[in-house]
Amino acid sequence: MALLTDLINLNLSDYTEKIIAEYIWVGGSGTDLRSKARTLPGPVTDPSQLPKWNYDGSSTGQAPGKDSEVILCPQAIFKDPFRKGNNILVMCDCYTPQGEPIPTNKRYNAAKTFSNSIVEAEETWFGIEQEYTLLQKDVNWPLGWPIGGFPGPQGPYYCAAGADKAFGRDVVDAHYKACLYAGVKISGVNGEVMPGQWEFQVGPCAAISAGDHLWIARYILERITEITGVVLSLDPKPIPGDWNGAGAHTNYSTKSMRSDGGYEVIKEAIHKLGLRHKDHISAYGQGNERRLTGRHETADIDTFVWGVANRGASIRVGRDTEKSGKGYFEDRRPASNMDPYVVTSMIAETTLLWQPN
Amino acid sequence: MSLLTDLINLNLSDCTGKIIAEYIWIGGSGIDIRSKARTLSGPVSDPSKLPKWNYDGSSTGQAPGKDSEVILYPQAIFKDPFRRGNNILVMCDCYTPAGEPIPTNKRYNAAKIFSHPDVVAQETWYGIEQEYTLLQKDVKWPLGWPVGGFPGPQGPYYCSAGADKAFGRDIVDAHYKACLYAGIDISGINGEVMPGQWEFQVGPSVGISAADQMWIARYILERITEIAGVVLSFDPKPIQGDWNGAGAHTNYSTKAMRSDGGYEVIKKAIGKLGRRHKEHIAAYGEGNERRLTGRHETADINTFIWGVANRGASIRVGRDTENNGKGYFEDRRPASNMDPYVVTSMIAETTILLEE
């Protein structure tokens, strides 16, 4: 198949100015990613210079067949790690032909929140820890697990190496470099507590870009699992029983929190989040009740508790932050299948714009 | 196999002035593509400078054994993405030794239509959306489908990624770059609604070149599936039941349609097409009746309807065109196995040359 690889790896820049742009959007379920490609006459670095496009929304549960066009608005550009050269990935959001955001377009409201002058002045930063599970194709059982059975109990797998402990590192490492190539702000990776589960982190990203970077990182991950013949799962509790779930812990700070006296600001923010616990939980991902049980390093879904260095809490504050009197905190509630546009903007909204009655 | 790859990838320009030209033609079924190669003494960029050639028509159902020579006339040159260097692909059409186009040569009449002054003046543009299905070799069951069974129902596959949703992307991506390399106006690709089905688009291209480019793009695709050990199908309804068919939607515009007031010209053109619906359908691909059922984003084969943004119509006009009052429209009727020479020239003929 070397000839196929030669063709896939052709460096078009040697022959033409044309580039290929892969337009990416979030589909009708809110977690499925879709994409298609088009040829453009030359390199583009600014999303505002990219043409709008459209797709068949009736095929993704986002429009009826009789009026099926959904408009794609380019919002962020990344380098394409698969096609390389001047080719690009484009994160888009979706609108009706009349220019209204469609119901599944969560970016639109997030962008409004992030362009609020109070929010902008606070320079919100986010670091998102995306956990995910790799499954064997066709059987949908975690990678490395015996079919029809279970591996030994959790303990040896977290940050492990070894053919009997770490399953799928080639996916993880390829993803890490591909994201760095693409310009995604990936800050690290680690093997997780449940075998076959991994984590990468994106951040610190400012405001809306956290959501853009995380969605592109997810797209790149799904493309890489496709190449390796393994299935990506963002389910928050893929295996019931004494096995960890998968979350998307969201680390957060504002300018005030990062400045002297920030620890008081942090405590106030956490207090507000506690008052809106139910609202946040309902927006933090489907199926989270199977994960937030109070066991396996989670707090129970109905309980709001925060603490320093406490992994059984809803919100954890690091010891460094406590010592320095300033820093950031970690919302551990979001599920792995959360929408980062929703979670990041809601945290900003509650802590900066919302007042308790 | 690295020694083999070394040889395949030898850069001949380092060693000789000679080039290899792959002459490509359409075979006796109207959908099978044939080709053979010859050495030429140096680089050629103009088809009129290429020699005519011939082949054994009795081996392709295009001539009797006793008088088997079919003459190949070079019509268009593209860069060869497999041999690279100065090597070329040559799209040809077929003639008897006496100089008459053979019956399966649909390019000849298309060229006549496209050189008619009224058609030339209108600068007909085409964008063709070629859908196709990848099949597992030997079992001829779609790629990614369990042998003896079916995948989950349609929904997750359109434009998807993932090992459980997208099957054969390496073929699609290799094809995209190979076509760009070759000089084809390939404008995009996407995964289709049925798993194992894909689409690429060629255009906008003017006149006869739309079809030349589409045939070469099909040839390149078949060569790539050959490398990948997967079978290419242009059947318009490869799997019966609740699975989408495969089409070759043909987007079309003329100078008048692209100018101010063009929307009225478009509506007139659609009216003319509606009155010749049966004739067009008869020329739009074999087996299309299995595909045009009124379900799965098609209009029923016996019905002619058009609408804005309506994927269940025979002809769809985009919202942009409606809003701007000018643009283009999409004929959704052609099957994936249509002959682009026939379809493009027939649309031009009906909308420009035939009177109301």
How would you explain this protein's 3D organization?
The structure is a homodimer. Chain A has 357 residues and is of the alpha+beta class. Chain A has ten helices and 13 strands. Chain A has helices spanning 2-8, 107-114, 117-121, 169-182, 209-228, 255-258, 262-275, 277-282, 319-324, 340-353; strands at 19-26, 33-40, 53-56, 69-79, 88-95, 125-136, 186-191, 197-206, 230-233, 248-253, 306-308, 315-317, 329-331. In chain A, the strands form two sheets. In chain A, strands 6, 7, 8, 9, 10, 11, 12 and 13 form an eight-stranded mixed sheet that branches. In chain A, helix 2 runs parallel beside helix 10 (340-353) and helix 4 (169-182) packs across helix 5 (209-228). Chain A starts with a helix and ends with a helix. Strand 2 of chain A pairs antiparallel with strand 7 of chain B.
Main sheet record of chain A: 8 strands, mixed
Strand content of chain A: 15-25%
Cα end-to-end separation of chain A: 66 Å
Helix content of chain A: 25-40%
- Which overall shape of chain A is indicated by the principal axes computed on the Cα atoms? globular
Tell me the quaternary state. Answer: homodimer
Q: Supply the helix-strand structural class of chain A.
A: alpha+beta
Low-confidence stretches of chain A: none
H/I helix tally of chain A: 10
Helix and strand element order of chain A: HEEEEEHHEHEEHEEHHHEEHEH
Largest interface: A-B, 49 and 51 residues
Q: In angstroms, what is the radius of gyration of chain A? A: 21 Å
Q: What's the rounded overall pLDDT mean of chain A? A: 96
Number of strands of chain A: 13
Domain GS beta-grasp (chain A): 19-99
Main location (chain A): cytoplasm
Subcellular location (chain A): Cytoplasm
Region (Disordered) (chain A): 37-63
